[in-house]
Amino acid sequence: MLIGVPKEIKNHEYRIGLSPAAVQEYVNRGHDVMVQRDGGTAIGFTNEDYEAAGARIVDSPEEIFASADMIVKVKEPQPNECKMLREGQILYTYLHLAPDPEQTRLLAEAGVTAIAYETVTDNRGGLPLLAPMSEVAGRMSIQAGAHHLEKVNGGSGTLLGGVPGVAPGKVLIIGGGVVGTQAAKMAVGMGAEVTLLDRSLVRLRELDDIFMGRVKLVYSTAQAIEQYSQQADLVVGAVLIPGAAAPKLLTREHIKNMKPGSVLVDVAIDQGGCFETSKATTHQDPTYIVDDVVHYCVANMPGGVARTSTIALNNATLPYGLALADKGLEALAQDANLRNGLNMHRGYITYKAVHDDLGAQLGLDYLEPLAAIKI
Ligand SMILES: NC(=O)C1=CN([C@@H]2O[C@H](COP(=O)(O)OP(=O)(O)OC[C@H]3O[C@@H](n4cnc5c(N)ncnc54)[C@H](O)[C@@H]3O)[C@@H](O)[C@H]2O)C=CC1
Ligand SMILES: CC(=O)C(=O)O
Ligand SMILES: [Mg+2]
Questions:
Q1: 267 lines ligand 2 (CB under 6 A)
Q2: Which atom of ligand 2 is nearest to the CA of 117?
Q3: Which of 16, 78, 182, 270 best tests ligand 2's pocket when mutated (most atoms within 8 Å of CB)?
Q4: 24 lines ligand 2 (CB under 6 A)
């Protein structure tokens, strides 16, 4: 198969769909790979690195979109990219279609076979192609929080780890899934006093075995959120109710009662955010202040550490990408977990939640994925 890797064009997005190591894996299996010139240069993957891995460097995205059988990307295609996609071509990338009717309409018009990283599943009910970016964002949340607790960055001037003779800062993490667990590890590593809330007792028990008493594990109720947020220097929002908008767990009232200069990091902003006062921000301008509390709500946190994130993402996307390259649509027929990633095919919506949100509005029909790939 001919694989095409265009340079990402979303604002301040420096990740790239394939690392040189991943390119080599495709080439070793007999596939041809085209990479857009300077697609990875910003994160230290040079054109020479890609050529050494067996890729052909191509100057224009138009050539890549026109000739590739499969396009491998990171972020959702921008409108001018959607217009270059076509029927019979596979698009393999993050899509986040449900809140994005314009992209959904353009992908339907293109007729492309669009596979969304974020809806591919595994046998344990996890989202294996979302998980690595949740790991990155969870770890970054404490780094970002610590930075913004510094006085010059708007915070109270608190060092999370404290020093001998001074108590450490208090971190509250709401949600103990992938993001919350990684956040807790970083906060513990810095020496902070950490409390984590989840409403799954099963998960709290698992976390008890991981943290062995080093993290205070509390069942998530409105009362617990009120109590612990008032004492916290840093609160991380890390909840997810799959497919749904995040619940607003920390209200404006709670935030008014927090200590001045404390910091909120709302990682769940992707799903609308779990703090009442959250609105999406960017790496360029990541914070704003409400009631003396610093809010950090960057919607693509992994893009801030694009080199680490590219490698982590490739570790997860590679096996499924190779299966698609080797077998085409037959890979979807053979693997129900990969098939859950199919969101659009030949103008049909093939992911139920996306159709529920957008089908009527766009006048697009739903086709069950297994039926869709047979048409
Ligand atoms: N801003 C960014 O750049 C990124 C954001 N994310 C987002 O981070 C969020 C979390 O993702 P993951 O950790 O991978 O999800 P996950 O599914 O692994 O964990 C979510 C946890 O939230 C818990 N939860 C649900 N309702 C709760 C409540 N009322 N109180 C306390 N806990 C509750 C669940 O029991 C679960 O343990 C998602 O919205 C995801 O899209 C992920 C990656 C990057
Ligand atoms: C998960 C996602 O959308 C991102 O990493 O940008
Ligand atoms: Mg995102």
A1: no
A2: 1
A3: 270
A4: no
pLDDT for the residue 11? 79
Phi-psi sector, 124: left (phi>0), alpha (psi -120 to 50), beta? alpha
**For ligand 2, atom 6: residue with the closest CA:** 300
Find out whether 134 is annotated in a ligand binding site: yes
Summarised one tens digit per residue, pLDDT across range 294-326 is 999 998 899 999 999 999 999 999 999 999 999
Which domains are present in the chain?
2-126+306-372 (3.40.50.720), 131-299 (3.40.50.720)
As a whole number, the mean pLDDT across the chain is 96
Joined tokens for residue 250: 């920390």
Which residues belong to the active site?
96, 270
pLDDT, one tens digit per residue, over 121-152 is 999 989 999 999 999 999 999 999 999 999 99
Distance 274 CA to ligand 1 centre (A): 10
Mind listing the pLDDT tens digit for each residue in 343-365?
999 999 999 989 998 999 999 99
Please state, in angstroms and rounded to a whole number, the distance separating the CA atoms of residues 93 and 96: 10
Q: Is 249 in the pocket of ligand 2 (CB under 6 A)?
A: no
pLDDT given at position 242: 65
106: Cβ contacts below 8 Å, ≥ 6 apart: 77, 79, 82, 83
C-alpha 96 – ligand 2 centre gap (Å):
9
Q: Mean pLDDT over residues 202-215, rounded?
A: 98
Q: Residues 37-63, buried b or exposed e (16+ Cβ, 10 A)?
A: eebbebbebebebbeebbbeebeebee
pLDDT score, position 244: 63
300 lines ligand 2 (CB under 6 A): yes
Any binding-site annotation on 299? yes
DSSP secondary structure code for residue 341 in this structure: T
- Quick one: what percent of the chain has pLDDT higher than 70? 99
Q: How confident is the model at residue 243 (pLDDT cuts 50, 70, 90)?
A: low
CA 158 to chain centre: 29
